[in-house]
Automatic annotation (TrEMBL):
UniProt organism field: Linnemannia exigua
Sequence segments annotated as region (Disordered): 41-64, 539-568, 725-744
Domain Swiss Army Knife RNA repair protein HAD: 98-316
PANTHER family documented for this protein: OB FOLD-CONTAINING PROTEIN, NUCLEIC ACID BINDING, RRNA 2-O-METHYLTRANSFERASE FIBRILLARIN
Name of the protein this chain belongs to: Swiss Army Knife RNA repair protein HAD domain-containing protein
Molecular functions per Gene Ontology: histone H2AQ104 methyltransferase activity; RNA binding; rRNA methyltransferase activity
Length: 744
């Protein structure tokens, strides 16, 4: 067991605050003390110094376990004299696979609301329940949730006497501090410092608040305006940036810094900070390792219960505000302070403020995300294993990585005649390690977004119709996404007849029909014979990808917070049935698009699944030896609607004028104040398109949701820059050459 004892990082800091008038009250110090949380640094900012004191300390939890042998190593000059390298690890999606809202459950627009800080209760990242994964998982010490490759790097660092080992997270300390220490301790990891974000927002003095001053100027002459409650936003990157500066000032012998992080936008900013440290001769080498792992999610029903509890809490807060009660502002703390040496660094500039807005009542309902051809889980597993997988051993390292799913034989043995894939990837992707690419949870053919009109549904055969989908070719876009081009199978070929349909098709290859239960057939007659009068193996199967032949999508109908499903979205379509007397059709609502199945994409490169619609170049199907595929591959699917949980839309008045400056938000989040022209225009347009898709109006009340959208757009933009700087050393010579490197 790792010994956790009180640690204080002594730094020479001044009394510089956001407002000089607040210097006497800008403390981030905490009175909290706990035996299990002795090494967690509660702040990247100092407590107020006694008069004439040159060395205020970071505030840390104290160890009250009466252990007289407590480790005081950071106070031991011999221990710290060995430091030459700082190794800094992020927590969420880096060291630990912290769950995000599951896109297989929630509509994307609702995920934006959940993860925004001030729209649904305390928001996802301030809710302790997001790290409460159930007694079984916690009893296993979160087995399967740790990024073991990063865990090993932490162990190597902590065993190296020359390394200062730091966990640096944007998690709010007062909310998550003790939980993080407990988790770290359970894993047996030994950090010198566990640093959390001390505050999310700081309340500004109403007499100095810009919003109060504006209200005062607008007030009628002779009348006093009511002070406006206004807060300073404390962003995660600024907090980390300030802390790492302090580390370098405190330990000048450290000449190398290595960071592990997952967020592209922050990585781009860290690269800029690292270059600054190199230019100022504060470091000789700066390195960033970009971490990207497959997402891991909470148990679906547990997640639904958690989110509905957040919605219920939000609606209670609405009631409080309607009765004249106070606003709910999560993560309030004291204003940040920094040291004199950093006065001109503008680490906290531009200062962003937040004026609380009245919350809106949230009503959860089921939403149709798209209508398409869906496939059973057995068919999807075969697609992942046999179409572009298997032949690349590097993709088999971890069960969560690409194309690694095992096929359940469902009582048949003909699927296991060979482990060789039937079809290889696009040519440029062959031989590449795509282990960290994202494989969609739900392989499908999108026919139209949302639900179709009655006329359109009739043209595709109606919900529940069986569709015979033939894989025609493969394609990719810019080495960052690949897909299968598909078409509706010629019925005459499958029937084995020589009618008009059969005569028009001169492809004489053997046909492989993959049925919903995973069995293979060579003709339509054989498939019909197997399924005629055959009862379903389950009563019904939801179109949600979290469903399986024995489980249904978790329901919200037993919760008072949820509304009754609408008629079209409430229909559960069985995906394990074959009705050859009611065949559907692949008819896309947008005629200019190509029917396809998105197989995998590079999220690190800012790619999204929808980008597969931009693929225009397609290649013939070939096997792993580069020979033409000897089979015609047909997968049996079903016309169904993708059902997700989301927020029932509210009616709102049209807004004629934009209230939030998208350009200013982009400059703030990228840290690039010079961005302009075409580059800025493209990013603003991308933000507007996302806002339109999510029905987010440009209003001050939606600022947090808009910021979430801007964050995603900036991440995609910065990853392109990031890759252009991949492993680029500084142009210099000599034994102490300053270098900066970025690794995937």
């Amino acid at each position: 067991m790792v010994s956790y004892s009180s640690q204080h990082l002594s730094v020479r800091l001044g009394l510089v605050g956001i407002k000089s008038d607040h210097d006497e009250t800008c403390s981030i110090a905490s009175d909290i003390s706990n035996a299990d949380t002795d090494r967690i640094v509660r702040s990247t900012f100092p407590s107020p110094s006694p008069p004439n004191s040159p060395s205020p300390n970071f505030s840390a939890f104290d160890n009250n376990n009466n252990d007289n042998n407590s480790d005081k190593r950071l106070l031991d000059s011999a221990y710290i004299s060995c430091f030459h390298t700082a190794k800094v690890f992020d927590f969420d999606q880096t060291l630990f696979q912290s769950p995000l809202p599951n896109p297989a459950l929630w509509d994307p627009s609702f995920i934006g609301i959940l993860t925004s800080w001030a729209y649904c209760g305390t928001g996802w990242w301030h809710n302790p329940g997001t790290l409460e994964m159930g007694p079984d998982i916690e009893a296993s010490l979160w087995d399967g949730w740790w990024n073991e490759a990063i865990v090993e790097k932490v162990r190597e660092s902590s065993e190296d006497p020359g390394c200062l080992t730091i966990l640096l997270t944007g998690r709010n300390g007062p909310t998550f501090g003790q939980k993080l220490v407990s988790m770290i301790q359970s894993k047996g990891l030994d950090f010198d410092l566990i640093v959390t974000k001390p505050t999310t927002v700081a309340l500004l003095d109403p007499s100095l608040s810009p919003a109060s001053k504006r209200a005062s100027r607008k007030a009628p002459a002779g009348s006093a305006s009511k002070p406006v409650e206004e807060y300073l936003k404390v962003h995660t990157f600024n907090t980390k940036h300030d802390f790492l500066y302090n580390v370098l000032y405190e330990y000048p012998a450290i000449r190398t810094m290595h960071l592990w992080d997952d967020r592209p936008c922050q990585i781009a900013k860290f690269r800029q900070a690292g270059q600054e440290w190199l230019d100022k001769k504060m470091l000789d080498h700066f390195e960033i390792t970009v971490v990207q792992e497959s997402m891991v999610y909470l148990d679906p029903q547990r997640e639904i219960d958690l989110v509905l509890a957040m919605v219920k809490a939000n609606n209670r807060q609405v009631d409080i505000e309607e009765q004249g009660g106070p606003f709910l502002v999560p993560g309030v703390g004291a204003a940040p302070r920094t040291r004199p040496e950093l006065r001109d660094r503008k680490i906290w500039d531009p200062y962003e403020t937040y004026v609380p807005q009245k919350r809106h009542r949230i009503e959860v309902t089921r939403i149709v995300r798209y209508t398409g051809v869906m496939f059973s889980e057995a068919v999807q597993r075969i697609m992942r294993d046999k179409l572009g997988g298997g032949s690349h051993p590097q993709d088999q390292h971890n069960h969560t990585l690409l194309f690694q799913h095992h096929i359940n034989n469902h009582g048949n043995s003909n699927l296991h005649d060979s482990t060789t894939p039937w079809v290889d990837r696009p040519l440029v992707l062959r031989g590449q390690d795509l282990g960290k690419w994202v494989v969609p949870d739900d392989l499908h053919v999108t026919l139209c977004l949302g639900t179709g009109t009655p006329e359109y549904l009739e043209s595709i055969g109606g919900l529940g119709a069986t569709v015979l989908v033939e894989v025609e070719s493969v394609g990719e876009l810019e080495n960052r996404i690949w897909a299968l081009k598909v078409k509706e199978m010629n019925l005459g070929v499958l029937s084995g007849g020589d009618g008009e349909q059969g005569a028009q098709d001169d492809d004489t290859r053997e046909v492989r029909i993959v049925a919903p239960n995973g069995e293979l057939y060579s003709t339509l007659d054989a498939l019909r014979a197997a399924y005629i009068s055959r009862p379903s193996t389950v009563a019904s199967l939801s179109s949600s990808p979290v469903s399986s032949p024995t489980t249904r999508t978790p329901s919200i109908q037993d919760h008072q917070e949820a509304t009754q499903s609408s008629t079209h979205a409430g229909l559960d379509i069985p995906l394990d049935l074959v009705d050859l007397d009611r065949l559907g059709h692949i008819v896309l609502k947008k005629e200019e698009t190509t029917p396809h199945i998105t197989m995998a994409y590079d999220r690190l490169n800012g790619t999204r699944a929808m980008d597969s619609g931009k693929i225009t170049q397609w290649e013939p199907l070939t096997d792993t030896q580069g020979q033409p595929c000897p089979y015609r591959l047909v997968f049996v699917g079903t016309v169904a609607e993708k059902l997700l949980l989301g927020m029932k839309a509210r009616k709102s008045a049209q807004v004629s004028k934009a209230e939030v400056s998208l350009g200013n938000l982009i400059k703030s989040l990228t840290g690039d104040k010079t961005i302009s022209g075409k580059e800025m225009g493209e990013m603003i347009q991308a933000v507007k398109e996302e806002m339109e898709k999510m029905s987010v109006e440009n209003r001050l009340a939606n600022e947090e949701r808009i910021m979430t959208i801007v964050h995603d757009v900036c991440d995609r933009h910065e990853t392109k820059k990031l890759l252009s700087h991949h492993n680029s050393p500084c142009a210099s010579t000599g034994t102490n050459t300053p270098t900066i490197a970025i690794h995937e």
